[in-house]
Write a structure and sequence with these properties.
By secondary structure, this protein is of the alpha/beta class. It contains 6 helices and 9 strands; from the N terminus they run E-H-E-H-E-H-E-H-E-H-E-E-E-H-E. The longest helix has 15 residues. The structure holds NADP nicotinamide-adenine-dinucleotide phosphate (NAP). InterPro entries: NAD(P)-bd_dom_sf.
Length: 182
């Protein structure tokens, strides 16, 4: 064990490259997602599959989630970074509680859709947790606009972690009425 342990909630979808990036950088990365085949695909794309710890659990099942995350910490050590893509805030609060039991100080990068920038909800977190917001915007090309690609999202998240931004926006959020399909 190398002592670097990250957790990615919803890390087999658009954040797959973020999960892989952690492993490439020597982290053990615990990845939450329900689908077995998505975990298998991710490990197949990795140069370090042994550093990927798949947590095949529904993050809405609080008891199971608690067991899975506690076991990951017992096996791979305290978690120093959590990247979260879930709208289900009780799962983030539960993970905060479990991670904070073993980590003095750790960072939570909470990824949020563009609407949350304007209507943010409240999250109760412990004082050990350094909370960072990453908002997903859209891309404007001349008179049209489009949503971000998975690659743009993953690269933006990695940049935000590397630069330790307290808040970042991937793409743009303004003018809001220019967002795709508006
Ligand atoms: N502003 C933007 O441009 C923007 C914003 C948001 C999304 N998008 C795009 O929309 C696409 C779809 O978004 P998406 O929200 O479906 O994201 P996604 O990243 O494709 O999928 C969600 C991730 O969370 C996991 N997950 C979902 N529900 C779960 C649960 N109950 N328990 C545990 N894990 C769970 C999924 O795996 P399992 O399903 O296997 O559990 C997967 O790893 C993305 O590919 C992205 O490019 C764009």
């Amino acid at each position: 064990m190398n002592g670097k342990h990250a957790l990615v909630i919803g890390g087999t979808g658009m954040l797959k490259d973020v999960s892989l990036w952690f492993a490439d950088n020597g982290f053990v990365v615990s990845v939450i997602g329900r689908g077995k085949s998505k975990h298998e695909d991710m490990k197949e794309s990795s140069l370090h599959p042994e550093l990927i710890n798949s947590l095949m659990v529904d993050y809405k099942s609080q008891l199971l989630l608690k067991d899975y995350v506690r076991s990951a910490i017992e096996k791979y050590g305290p978690i120093s970074i959590v990247v979260s893509w879930t709208p289900f805030l009780p799962s983030i609060e539960l993970i905060d509680h479990i991670v904070s039991e073993k980590s003095q100080s750790w960072k939570l990068y909470q990824i949020k859709g563009s609407r949350r920038y304007f209507e943010d909800g409240s999250l109760k977190l412990s004082s050990n947790c350094i909370h960072r917001n990453i908002y997903l915007g859209f891309v404007i090309n001349n008179d049209t606009s489009r949503w971000l690609t998975n690659k743009e999202i993953a690269n933006g998240v990695i940049k935000s972690i590397e630069e330790e931004c307290s808040e970042s926006i991937i793409g743009v959020l303004h003018p809001y009425e220019k967002r795709p399909g508006y």
